[in-house]
Amino acid sequence: MEAWAEVNKTWIPGVPLILIMDDSTSLPAPLPFLPGAPDPDSGLYIRSRSGAITKIKIPSDCLAFQTGETLQLITGGKFQAVPHFVRAAGRSVDGGQVARNTLAVFTQPGLEEIVDRQTGKTYAQFCREVAERFR
């Protein structure tokens, strides 16, 4: 699990809604919504500061936020970015397929905003550093 963990590079990512659907329906018919994932181990997991891995359950009528790496940088570490990963469903619905759909919202400062007061680093410079990490 640990190898899948990532930290969002944005300021405050938000997850407004997670939809679990029966993906075995032929299109163009609408995909039926499921009350939840058929695999109880699938879903969003975070790693806490103590290192514990915890499954997060977001109620369907709620909006979840987590802290990203930019917020950690801007606050000088007062807020810590949250390592996380999503485990795909390992079980299907009656032999069919399950689709997990979500629309994440990522907020970030302007490119020329200073995100590290000690070094004067802008968000654009931070983004370039992040891109270099993943080359």
Radius of gyration: 18 Å
Give the ordered list of helices and strands.
Answer: EEEEEHEEEEH
Mean pLDDT: 80
Query: What is the end-to-end distance?
Result: 22 Å
Main beta sheet strand tally, sense and closure: 3 strands, antiparallel
- Overall spatial form: elongated
The portion of residues forming beta strands comes to 15-25%
How many individual β-strands?
A: 9
What is the helix tally?
Answer: 2
* Low-pLDDT residue intervals, each spanning 5 or more residues: none
Structure explained in plain terms:
This protein is of the alpha+beta class. The protein has helices at residues 69-74, 123-133, and strands spanning 14-15, 18-22, 43-47, 53-56, 64-65, 84-87, 98-102, 114-116, 121-122. The chain has a three-stranded antiparallel β-sheet, with no helix packed on it. A hairpin with a 4-residue loop joins strand 8 (114-116) and strand 9 (121-122). The two termini are 22 Å apart.
Give the helices and strands, then pairings.
Layout: E1 14-15, E2 18-22, E3 43-47, E4 53-56, E5 64-65, H1 69-74, E6 84-87, E7 98-102, E8 114-116, E9 121-122, H2 123-133
Antiparallel strand pairs: 1-5, 2-7, 3-4, 3-6, 8-9
